[in-house]
Amino acid sequence: MLNKVPEVTIWFWVIKVLCTTVGESFADWINTQLGVGLVNTAWIFTAVLVVALAVQLRLKRYVPFPYWLTVVVVSVTGTLYTDILTDQLNVPLWISSAVFSVLLVVVFGVWWLREHTLSIHSVTTLPRESFYWLTVLVTFALGTATGDWTLELTGWSPGVSVLLPLGLIAAITALRRFGANPVLSFWLAYILTRPLGANIGDWLASPKVAQNPGDPTGLALGTFTTSLIFLGLILATVVYLTVTRTDVTETREATHTAQVTSNPHKERIALAGFGVLAVATAALLAWAHAQPHVGPAPETDTTSAVQLPPGQAVKNFPPAKVGALRTLASTSLKDARSGDATGAHAAAQSLRDLWDADQDSLQPLDDTGWTSIDAQMDKVLKTFGIDHSNPPMSPAQQESELNTLLVDLG
After folding, report:
1. Average pLDDT for 261-266
2. CA dist 247 to 63, 75, 102, 136, 358, Å?
3. Are 116 and 256 in contact (CB under 8 A)?
């Protein structure tokens, strides 16, 4: 039977990172720019995933377009599931990381007990392909949780955060060339492409404002532009692969050749190398966590200096963007009034994300109006403990600041 997974070449890893990046950016754009919300976005992509998987599983061989489309959708969906745990249910990232790690071990264990192989070179049957896509989904969720947890521990900027997964993938590649187990090497690298792609997306989309002195700033492309760029790159790569068929393999179900030519002695040495790499990474994160985390420079509260009538601050802003902000603020206020603290917090966080994403397009239109809204937005976020060290304030305080913001938004 024909293998349902492409040959693992440089093209595989390039397009894998591209898919991860566009998945992260596109999900953020839908969640914030369109005001759909995190849960609704997750439902949308879950439905799309079911359709994409149905098409992919019916195919008898590897076909580039449906395969990579499924990877994009899986990357978005897995990310959204982790985000819901973190932002909606307030599950700590270390718990999410631990849960998904255990789940991944369970999936691998069941896959091995049933099929006696975890190699993607033997994905030639429906059960094996089903295990493969379930594993991919869990790796994306795990990669999201561990990546975000790393940023939470270290306080690194998007530019710096790219270096850790990139360095780890390079080290894994070196160990693989030395003689490490190919299956273990593949799945370790596969997990790490998730935080790598997400960090690249954040770096490209983030504003040109350094989180810490000396850190590389973002490129301020925005989530929509970043998504378009990487979608174009993915499309071009998939077209190239479709025409050249350079990633097509017709491997039989037999044991992969690498297992026959492997050197057990080198595999044991490489396994020890993976252990050293894990210890070194943990030590680096512990050291970074112990360093002072310098946050953004304190903002000057200009609310008292800029007194604008209701709606005046946003008169020069596009109505659609103002409407999206009002929708999220109204949702947060409604949830706060009804006692739904989790929903109110999630809506406020989406409001923050949307406001930050629109800064580069709104501030040049009216700096005074933007500064006025930004000051009130900061007060709203403070009541929820978002981007501030204080714990969430009372619902009454949250409602008061949200009401003021809605008045300012007209």
Report:
1. 81
2. 10, 21, 32, 19, 40
3. no
Type of residue at 329: A
154: burial class by Cβ within 10 Å (0-12, 13-18, 19+)? buried
Q: Distance between CA atoms of 156 and 43, rounded to whole angstroms?
A: 31
The stretches of 206-296 forming alpha helices (DSSP H) are 222-244, 257-260, 264-290
Task: List Cβ neighbours of 338 (8 Å cut-off, separation of 6 or more).
Answer: none
3-state secondary structure of 153: helix
Rounded Cα distance between 135 and 128, Å, is 10
Place of tokens 């591209």: 18
- For the range 296-300, what are the long-range contacts, defined as Cβ-Cβ under 8 Å and sequence gap of 24 or more? 296/209, 296/211, 299/374, 299/375, 299/378
Whole-angstrom Cα distance, residue 32 to residue 347? 10
Give the C-alpha separation, 105 to 15, whole Å.
26
Cβ atoms of residues 114 and 62 within 8 Å:
no
With tokens 């982790």, the residue in question is 82
- pLDDT, mean over the chain: 82
Report in angstroms the alpha-carbon separations of 206 from 155, 209, 210: 15, 8, 10
> What pLDDT score was predicted for residue 253?
39
The predicted structure's pLDDT at residue 208: 57
| pLDDT value at residue 249 | 66
Buried b (16+ CB within 10 A) or exposed e, 359-374: eeebbeebeebbbbbb
